[in-house]
Amino acid sequence: MDYRNYNSIALAFMGDAVYERFIRERLVRSGSVGADRMHREAVRYVKAAAQETALRALLEELNEDESLVVRRARNHRITSKPKNADPLTYKMATAFEALLGYLYLSGQAERLSDVMEKSARIIEGAAGEQ
Asked: What is the CATH class of 3-129?
């Protein structure tokens, strides 16, 4: 199946779940304890602004297929009002999640892992700059 042309929202839906699991596992493996603390730390990675930051830093590294998926998802019309982000940030976060969903569904496990690890480091670095 050619997931490049798959519904952007479906890819983002899958990518959201994949990324959430990755972040939760990363936090548990790092020795974080306490549900409240782990939740606060997880939000730092999964909020729309953080995902936008990661995607913008990764744009130059994306191959043609990945760029296509990101562009389609970013340009997808928003039908609901984002709660905690401006529309552009929300679109970029959706594009980030769509990229992860595409990589996951197309079986590119190594590339998916690489993108998520780089994203986490980018977000950690951005948080350190504030």
From this structure: mainly alpha
Supply the residues annotated as catalytic.
16
The interaxial angle of helices 87-105 and 64-75, nearest 10 deg, is 140
Which of 41, 53, 52 is CA-nearest to residue 126? 53
Tell me the C-alpha distance between 88 and 18, whole Å: 22
Specify the amino acid at residue 68.
L
pLDDT digits (tens, 9 = 90+) for 98-125: 999 999 999 999 999 999 999 999 999 8
pTM as predicted: 0.91
Question: Would the CA dihedral through 10, 16, 19, 25 be positive or negative?
Answer: negative
d(CA 66, CA 55) in angstroms, rounded, equals 11
